[in-house]
TrEMBL record:
Residues 29-51 have a biased composition (Low complexity). Residues 29-55, 120-175 are annotated as: Disordered. This is OmpA-like domain-containing protein. It comes from Rhodococcus rhodnii LMG 5362. Residues 1-26 form the signal peptide. Transmembrane segments: none annotated. Residues 129-152, 164-175 have a biased composition (Basic and acidic residues).
Length: 175
């Protein structure tokens, strides 16, 4: 709840700054009718608008990074992992996914769920990885995260030796 409040306050502050800045720019109009003054004011207005847009973009990126950081902290403390040849979530995994959902509630970013599995039969590995990803997605939906914000990618028998084939990874994306 605290993170939600912080993100909302940052967004509200950025919006308020935009309104105040644009309002101040609009109120500085000199009625002298000079073409030079009008051109200068237009450039200043555009500069102000660009600065506000840059600030809002920066704050939005920071909020997204905060969500990824919160998810990384939760998963770092208690990874979402599975027993070999299983797609069943345990109590610890459910608790971690509750924390992931809480982090996701602070904004509208999407989440890519990356699930893996190993098996001598590559088709069975692909199927198990997909089942694991879908189990994680179902739990996050159960926790109140909209299904359209969740994408599952799965890989059976991953080529990357650094990937734990019984673990799920998460990546926050803006689209």
């Amino acid at each position: 709840m605290k993170r939600t409040t912080t993100v909302r306050r940052i967004t509200a502050a950025a919006a308020a700054a935009a309104v105040v800045t644009l309002g101040a720019a609009a109120c500085t109009n000199d009625d002298s009718g000079s073409q030079e003054t009008t051109t200068t004011e237009a450039a200043e207005d555009q500069s102000t608008t660009d600065a506000v847009q840059s600030t809002v973009t920066s704050l939005t990126e920071q909020a997204g990074n905060a969500v990824q950081d919160a998810i990384n902290s939760a998963v770092g403390a208690a990874p979402v992992s599975f027993d070999a040849n299983s797609a069943e979530l345990g109590t610890l995994q459910n608790a971690t996914l509750t924390a992931v959902a809480a982090a996701l509630e602070t904004n509208e970013d999407k989440l890519e769920i990356k699930a893996y599995a190993m098996d001598e039969d590559s088709s069975a590995a692909d199927d198990l990885a997909q089942e694991r990803g879908e189990a994680v997605k179902s739990k996050l939906v159960e926790e109140g995260i909209s299904e359209d914000r969740l994408d599952v990618s799965s890989e059976g028998n991953p080529d990357d030796s650094d990937v734990d084939p019984n673990r799920v990874d998460f990546e926050v994306t803006s689209e």
